[in-house]
Amino acid sequence: AFLHSTNPIILSACAEPCIASADYGTCQQTDIKCLCTSNAFVAGTTACIQSKCTGDDLTKAQTVATGLCSSVVRLDIRAH
């Protein structure tokens, strides 16, 4: 539901089980802002995706997740 509810985003097949079995905590699966600010969800899905995906699939999954979260949450990224 995380990616299929409000966004027609296709995630790499290797990442889909990570989203399906993620720790949603107190967030609804359709509440992207809540999920993107949940340390448990972000850490758990990131670790899972990094262990299950490689190469282009890993890059695609990271790009989709970053793009999705940055559209609803202000990311404080500063150049050093």
UniProtKB/TrEMBL annotation:
| GO cellular component term of the entry, any | extracellular region
| Domain spans labelled CFEM | 1-80
UniProt xrefs under Pfam families: CFEM
Q: What is its main location?
A: secreted
UniProt keyword NAD, yes or no: no
Q: Which UniProt keywords apply?
A: Disulfide bond, Secreted, Signal
Check the record and name the InterPro entries matching this protein.
Extracellular_membr_CFEM_dom
Q: Which SMART domains match?
A: CFEM
Q: Where in the cell is it found?
A: Secreted
Q: Under what name is this protein listed?
A: CFEM domain-containing protein
Q: Which organism is it from?
A: Crepidotus variabilis
